[in-house]
């Protein structure tokens, strides 16, 4: 049974920070692949700055095409919105019975995991792989030594999609922060200029 790490994000746009983390996780854990799951609309984010789903998926496709173990996923596009991770995991487990799905999250998300819908169900059926993030607050003690939570010593990346969108809007050179194909696509499509 192959082990798939699900890395969720709006990827608006996907940047080298996402790729560094995904690649590090797949190369330094027992995961066989990482699926970059493009989330259609996060209930906690304002929708106005979000590019259409297919554009963000296309950027993830362009960013990952040279990585054999990292794949784009539109698994959430057809699920009812707003969607919850627990539903996506159930959907994928049904659809791919020969794969074991794990979650990938930053330490900042682990700190709020106890607020997630059905987080106990998630932990009962899935492993969680956590990469370090600089953030306020503490991880709840119930997650500290949890057998299904694995902390991976990945590089700490402080690049955000917001920083990139603002850079483009303010005519800054953000080239080093984006995979070449993604940068070209953003430029051709005239994204994030306004």
Q: Tell me the series of helices and strands, N- to C-terminal.
A: EHEHEHEHHEHEHH
Structural class estimated from helices and strands: alpha/beta
Rg for CA atoms: 16 Å
Q: Helix content range of the residues, please?
A: 25-40%
The assembly state of the depicted protein chains is: single chain
Which parts are unreliable, with pLDDT below 50 for 5 consecutive residues or more?
none
Number of strands: 6
The largest pleated sheet is described as: 6 strands, parallel
Write out the CATH superfamily name. Answer: HUPs
CATH topology: Rossmann fold
Q: In CATH's first tier, which class applies?
A: Alpha Beta
- Strand arrangement across the biggest beta sheet: 3-2-1-4-5-6
Query: Helical region count?
Result: 8
Write the layout of secondary structure elements.
Elements: E1 2-9, H1 16-27, E2 33-38, H2 53-64, E3 70-73, H3 85-95, E4 99-106, H4 107-111, H5 119-125, E5 128-131, H6 141-144, E6 149-151, H7 161-169, H8 180-189
Parallel strand pairs: 1-2, 1-4, 2-3, 4-5, 5-6
């Amino acid at each position: 049974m192959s082990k798939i790490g699900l890395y969720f994000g709006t990827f608006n746009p996907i940047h080298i920070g996402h790729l560094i983390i995904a690649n590090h996780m797949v190369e330094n854990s027992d995961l066989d692949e990482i699926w970059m799951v493009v989330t259609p609309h996060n209930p906690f984010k304002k929708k106005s700055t979000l590019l259409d789903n297919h554009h963000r998926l296309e950027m993830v496709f362009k960013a990952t095409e040279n990585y054999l173990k990292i794949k784009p996923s539109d698994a959430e596009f057809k699920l009812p919105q707003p969607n919850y991770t627990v539903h996506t995991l159930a959907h994928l487990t049904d659809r791919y019975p020969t794969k074991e799905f794990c979650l990938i999250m930053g330490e900042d998300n682990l700190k709020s995991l106890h607020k997630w819908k059905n987080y106990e169900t998630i932990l009962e059926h899935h492993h969680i792989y956590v990469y370090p993030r600089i953030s306020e607050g503490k991880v709840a003690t119930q997650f500290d030594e949890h057998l299904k939570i694995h902390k991976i010593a990945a590089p700490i990346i402080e690049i955000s999609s917001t920083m990139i969108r603002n850079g483009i809007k303010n005519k800054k050179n953000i080239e080093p922060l984006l995979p070449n194909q993604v940068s070209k696509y953003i430029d051709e499509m005239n994204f994030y200029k306004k």
